Amino acid sequence: MKLPFDRDYFKISLYASVCAISVFAAVFVITNIVQIIDGAVRILKSSFELAAPLFIGIFIAFLLEPLTEFFEKSFSKGHSKYRKRYIGAVMSFVTVGLVLIFVGVMLCRNVGTADMSGIALGVNRAAEEMLFRIDNLQYNLSHMGILSYLNGAVNSMMGYISYIADRIVSSAASAVAGAGSAAIDIGIGSVTAFYFLLEKEKIILRLKDVTYTFLPAKAADVITSFFKDITVVFSGYIAGQMIDAMIMACLFSVCFYIAGIKYAFVIGVFSGALNIIPYVGAVSALILSSLVALVSGTPVKALYAAVVVLVIQQIDTAIISPKVVGSKVKLHPVIVILSLSVFGNLFGVWSMVFAVPAAAVIKLNFDRLYILRRNKVALSLTQKKNHI
């Protein structure tokens, strides 16, 4: 016997099935949320590791794009468009390579074999002095009859110190083991960046073609405009951060040299390079300069180093970074400071890398929405006046 088809019952059954599946899926996700998040994190981590050369290439291309355009316009006249782009990309890589070689030579001249042996002797001397003080403390406590009560605490503390030392050693070993992989990623990323710079216009046209082919026109317009904004903002932000890093490297080097801290140039260049990430450069400058001052036998210079880093960091936060970076991304210095503060408090130190470009993209789209809304209001008022 064939039952008649009832559309209403079919809809009810379909809705009930969808509802049951949704409830089951929600319960499954809630009960296994930890495993799902862990699996998603592992997949994302593996994906980022596999695509590391691509991301490095994109980052290097962003860094070298202004320099490539400069050489393309200045030193490649009389050639075809592709030839100009090729010359600009090659000269930008050659320039950066020469700068890195110069910095490397200067670092080697400042930290030679004699300096390295001096650092080793200073570390050994500091370690011997620490052990001597611990032995004296133990001797005095044993004579006072206190040591028996502190044995448990001392053993626990020494065990914790041993654990920390083991972690440091294993982390250092992992870093050394990963140096080769990082070098390969940087090498592949550099080659990728060269082709990104060389084929920039072709890549952009291809991406636009794919976007408008697979998406509706309005959605494609929105996506194209959004990524164009991100490209412009990130290019300006990276250029501003590079200028800020060079200024901070010069300030750290000069101030450490005046304060009489050894390896001032090395510490200044290294800390200035890390200053691309907000506050990381200042923290590294403080740690390195303080360690050098302590190891060299002049602990008072560690105080000088702390004062120098504090003053320079305040100048960078209040004046240099807002002016330099803000002018590149067309943000007011107050907005730069507020974006860094808000992102740092909400998402941590590493999120501050994206604070300024994110604020610039938000401001750019807000300005567009404001202008669109203002034009609509003005048009509406004009129509009302004409109607009257």
Write the layout of secondary structure elements.
Layout: H1 7-31, H2 33-50, H3 52-74, H4 81-110, H5 113-144, H6 147-198, H7 200-214, H8 217-258, H9 264-274, H10 280-295, H11 300-329, H12 333-347, H13 355-387
Helix pairs in contact: 3-4, 3-6, 3-8, 8-9, 8-11, 8-13, 9-10, 10-11, 11-12
Short account of what is shown:
With 388 residues, the chain is mostly helical. 88% of the residues lie in helices and 0% in strands. It is built from 13 helices and no strands.
Binned, the helix content reads over 70%
Major sheet = none
User: What sort of overall outline do the alpha carbons produce when their principal axes are compared?
Assistant: extended
| Secondary structure tally, helices | 13
Report the mean per-residue pLDDT as an integer.
Answer: 75
Describe the structure.
This protein is an all-alpha fold and 388 residues long. The chain has a domain at 226-372. Helices cover 88% and strands 0% of the residues. Helix 3 (52-74) crosses helix 8 (217-258) and helix 8 (217-258) packs antiparallel against helix 9. It is extended, with a radius of gyration of 30 Å. The protein starts with 6 loop residues before the first helix and ends with a helix. 20% of the residues are buried. The model has no long low-confidence stretch (mean pLDDT 75).
